[in-house]
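Need a sequence for this fold. Nothing fancy.
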C-alpha cells in the first residue's frame, strides 16, 4: 500500500485535471476580486441608447427604483456586484459538482481516484459536511435565488435590443454576448442536481397525475445533469469573457455594432 500525498501506481497524467481546475478557480477568484474592489469602472456601455451590462455586474440593482436603491447614498466601494454576487457565488460554491472540484484541487481529498491523500486528512478523518461545510446544505435555497437572477439576466438581454436613439429594435454583438452568457447559465441551473431532486427525485413513484409529469421532468433534467460539469465551466468562463468584452468596448478598444434592426 502506498502512503502519502500523490502516491499512486497510476501511470497516466492523473494530476492534469485537478491542476487545471485549481488554476482556473484561483484565476476566477483573483479576477473577481480585482473587478469588484480594485477596478469596478466600466461595468456597462451604451449603443444607440441600448445598455449592454457586464455579466459580473448584472443585474445592476443600484439602478433600480425598487427598494429605493437608485437613490441610496451608498459608500464608494459598494457596487452592484458586491450586493448581488453572493447569490451566484453561493449557488456555485455549494454545487455538488463544485464540491467535487474543490475537495480534489484544494484539499486533495482525494486528488484523484486511486491516488493517496495527505496524512493530515487521514488523521482528521471524514467528519461529514459539518462546521463550515454545513453551509453546503443551503444549496437548494441558493438555487431559488439563482433562478430569480437568471430571469433578470434574460430581462437585461432585452435591454440590449431596444435602440432608444433610433426608436428601433434589433440585435448587436453585445446582445449575443449577454444572451450566450444567460443561455449557458440557464443550462447550468436547469441541469442542477438539486433541481432534479425537486422535480421528481423526492417521490417514491411516478405513476399517476402530477407525479407522472414530475417523473418525466425528472428524466429530462437527468439528461441535462449528465453534462452538469460542462455547463458549470462554460457558464463560468463566459462570465469573464463577457466582462472582458464590456471592458474592451467601454475602453474604446473594440466597437459594438448593430447587426440588424427593425
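Here you go.
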Amino acid at each position: 500500500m502506498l502512503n502519502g500525498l500523490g502516491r499512486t501506481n497510476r501511470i497516466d497524467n492523473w494530476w492534469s485535471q485537478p491542476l487545471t481546475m485549481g488554476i482556473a478557480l484561483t484565476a476566477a477568484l483573483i479576477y473577481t476580486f480585482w473587478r469588484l474592489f480594485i477596478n469596478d469602472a466600466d461595468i456597462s456601455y451604451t449603443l444607440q441608447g441600448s445598455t449592454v451590462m457586464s455579466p459580473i455586474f448584472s443585474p445592476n440593482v443600484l439602478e433600480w427604483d425598487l427598494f429605493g436603491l437608485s437613490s441610496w447614498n451608498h459608500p464608494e466601494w459598494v457596487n452592484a456586484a458586491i450586493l448581488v454576487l453572493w447569490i451566484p457565488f453561493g449557488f456555485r460554491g455549494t454545487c455538488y459538482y463544485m464540491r467535487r472540484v474543490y475537495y480534489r484541487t484544494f484539499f486533495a481529498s482525494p486528488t484523484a481516484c486511486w491516488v493517496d491523500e495527505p496524512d493530515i486528512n487521514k488523521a482528521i478523518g471524514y467528519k461529514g459536511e459539518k462546521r463550515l461545510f454545513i453551509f453546503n446544505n443551503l444549496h437548494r435555497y441558493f438555487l431559488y435565488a439563482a433562478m430569480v437572477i437568471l430571469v433578470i439576466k434574460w430581462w437585461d438581454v432585452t435591454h440590449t435590443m431596444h435602440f432608444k436613439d433610433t426608436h428601433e429594435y434589433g440585435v448587436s454583438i453585445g446582445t449575443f454576448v449577454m444572451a450566450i452568457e444567460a443561455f449557458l447559465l440557464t443550462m447550468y441551473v436547469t441541469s442542477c442536481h438539486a433541481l432534479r431532486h425537486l422535480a421528481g427525485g423526492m417521490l417514491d413513484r411516478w405513476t399517476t397525475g402530477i407525479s407522472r409529469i414530475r417523473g418525466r421532468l425528472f428524466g429530462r433534467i437527468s439528461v441535462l445533469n449528465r453534462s452538469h460539469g460542462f455547463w458549470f465551466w462554460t457558464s463560468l468562463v463566459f462570465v469573464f469573457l463577457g466582462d472582458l468584452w464590456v471592458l474592451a468596448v467601454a475602453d474604446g478598444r473594440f466597437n459594438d455594432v448593430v447587426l440588424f434592426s427593425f
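For context: Residues 16-191+227-261 form one domain.
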